[in-house]
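Hey, sorry to bother you again with one of my protein questions. A protein chain has come my way and I'm curious about its shape. I'm sending you its amino acid sequence along with the backbone structure tokens. I owe you a coffee for this, so here goes:
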Amino acid sequence: MNLAGFVTRSVALPAGLACAAAALLAQVGRFSGHLDVLTHFAPLYLLGGTIVLALAPLDRRPRRLALIGASAALASFALMAPELLSAVKTSAQPSAPPPAHAVKLVQFNAGRDSHNLEARIRWLRQEDPDVLVVEDSRPVFQTMVVERLGRRQSCGMTCEISIFTREAPLKIESPRRGRIGLGPAVAVAHLQGPAGPYAVVGTHYAWPTAVTIHRENGRRMQEILKPLPARTTILMGDFNSTPWSFARRRDDRAFGLERRTRALPTWPANGMFGLAFLPIDHVYAGAGWRTVSVTRGPRLGSDHYPVVVTLAPR
């Protein structure tokens, strides 16, 4: 067997079968939380299927390998297509300059470490956000934000979620985590903006592999959002789920808010070359806000990239 035959039969064929099987089984995630876990890695199946398809001409049975590669690529693209098309549509819309009363928000999972603290503070000072929502931060970082950036801190029950604001909040809430403690970590800050009051909700979901907890996170978040004014509420955090998962799609429909982050990969930021491929940090906002801009920040020592969103009242 020559080298090309070895690669196609011993590497490409099993890899293609694995990607195709995972992408097809992920479609059953509509009904099964356990199989929905497979949906998050659709970009990997798409990449694998594309590579297998490219290698097909080298195989003794090219049609077989091409069929396997195409199945993996098409099934995974079918999962991602609604989000990718939405991202293209959003990016095609003309962007207006931010008005004087726009609100700038930063979402950042700090990763429970103290690396690059000075770089983080320098970047935040440069961005100068009106609202900063941070998950998994240590007290040393929280103190630096308060003292060196002059922000007011609003905490959840354990400060796992911290909301830092330019002005003192009108009210702070720390909702309970729901039945048997399976709800998400949450903090709520009620703020006064130039166009009126609004609420910012920060959250951190469990990993999707913890199927029962992740499902309860979504159910509890719906309860927390229900009494808040849907038109002016902003929800942001680390949801640990991609927009092509069926769990995230259900949340999108149930929240009554529009997700403003579209196919923006934020994890992992600490891998090879900082090549993130999973969009798991999201920002939602009610119909009373229009999107001015959505960008991703730099690598700051966490395994997540920060997200910067500017919104303006309609």
Notes: The mean pLDDT is 92. The radius of gyration is 21 Å. The longest helix spans residues 62-92. Helices lie at 3-26, 33-36, 42-55, 62-92, 117-127, 139-149, 211-225, 246-255.
